[in-house]
Design brief:
136 residues, mainly alpha, 5 helices, flat
């Protein structure tokens, strides 16, 4: 017979995802905060600046991996909903980013840094998620 205590010690995919996301985004925020505060000013614009660029990008890649693990570790309904949100958000982000890029090229729109695509993606994901209710 299973008891509540025995099953509660097993982390759910959602809980694991939240822990991973908090850890990876904590690293991301700390690195960017350090950069904003000037900790890395000595390497900016130099070859070593690429080390910082990769270091900040790694938690982004890790958080995307965490989302893919959430899909893999969840039941088929949650997997389908998260995947559908992810696909819709990725498509909308690419369409928006392409439109803006063409605006920069053809309409003198102000340049936006490429790293903004990541928070824009998650912003679109947050906007889309309440409307995705079925796994079909």
């Amino acid at each position: 017979m299973h008891t509540r205590a025995a099953t509660s010690s097993i982390p759910s995919p959602t809980r694991t995802y939240m822990i991973r996301t908090a850890a990876f985004m904590g690293i991301y925020v700390l690195l960017n905060l350090a950069a904003i505060l000037g900790v890395f000013d000595g390497i900016l614009g130099q070859a070593f600046g690429w080390i910082l660029a990769v270091a900040v990008a790694l938690p982004v890649a890790a958080q995307i991996w965490a989302t893919l693990r959430l899909m893999a570790d969840s039941d088929e309904y949650v997997r389908a909903i998260v995947a559908k949100n992810f696909i819709i958000s990725a498509g909308a982000t690419m369409a928006l980013w392409s439109t803006w890029g063409f605006g920069e090229t053809y309409a003198a729109a102000p340049h936006l840094p490429g790293w903004l695509i990541y928070p824009v993606f998650w912003g679109i994901y947050a906007l889309v998620s309440p409307f995705v209710r079925t796994s079909r």
